[in-house]
Amino acid sequence: MSLSAPDAKIFPCTQSRDLAEKIAKAYGQPLGKIITSTYSDGEFQPSFEESIRGSRVFIIGSTMPSSENLMEMLLMLDAAKRASARHITAVLPYFGWARQDRKDKPRVPIAAKLVANLLETAGATRIITMDLHADQIQGFFERPVDHLFASTVFLPYLESLNLPNMTIASPDMGGSKRAYAYSKALDCDVVICYKQREKANVISHMELIGDVKGRNVILADDMVDTAGTLTKAADLMMERGALSVRAICTHALLSGDAYERLEKSKLQELIVTDSIPPKQESSKVRILSCADLFADVMHRVHSNTSIASKFLM
Known about the structure:
- The protein has helices spanning 17-27, 67-82, 111-122, 151-161, 176-186, 228-239, 258-264, 291-302; strands at residues 9-12, 34-38, 44-48, 56-60, 87-92, 126-130, 145-148, 166-170, 189-199, 202-209, 216-224, 244-252, 269-273, 285-288.
- It is α/β, with parallel strands linked by helices.
């Protein structure tokens, strides 16, 4: 007797439940049953409340700090492995700890590599993520990595704005590749901000390479944390004669005084995805969902079909 492959099962980590529900709806099936028990001291234990033996399991959870978010993903991967799931895919809309992708000074960790090792040791047989902070992080894994680009989410929105004299800007030298890719897709010019830092999240000096006078500028970056770089870049560009400045940032960490900085800045709009749950509402923040993108790719992974069409950049 031949048996057909079981349906894929989708489970959420706590911090990404809202996004997981959107992904499951777009995928066309409900979320799987899981409960999390918590001890008095804060230790927690996730438990799958249905059989996953022989199944393809998708576990959805962004791993931004606190470290409990990463720990929950690791525990769920381990539980799935010990429950005899056949394929275990860690769906990480935001891959946290990615800024530590190299030794930029002596005696520091390479946290992104450590996290990759942890995910694989815990049981992940495949990784699906979006807009890694550095492309080379894919090479930290020994398992397949599907690295998606949020350009498939942002480009339709940018085109709908119908902005004349559009210019794409990179807030730093490291993002120039991303900026050039967007400029190619939108057939527009590119400018680059050059910044020097005193320390993490503190900018000492910023200069602009290129002309923005009379232009509607779109800053493109993979993440926004304190919003210091974006707001300083927006203010600088408006001083140099830009008509308007917007920003597209895939992952909205928005920590510290980020929301206050956004409200006080000359940035007209910050466009982000829902890879990270918003901490509060803001009139300047527009959230576009990446649920359809992940649901489509998960379908293709389960059916073993190509996802090449999702790589626009």
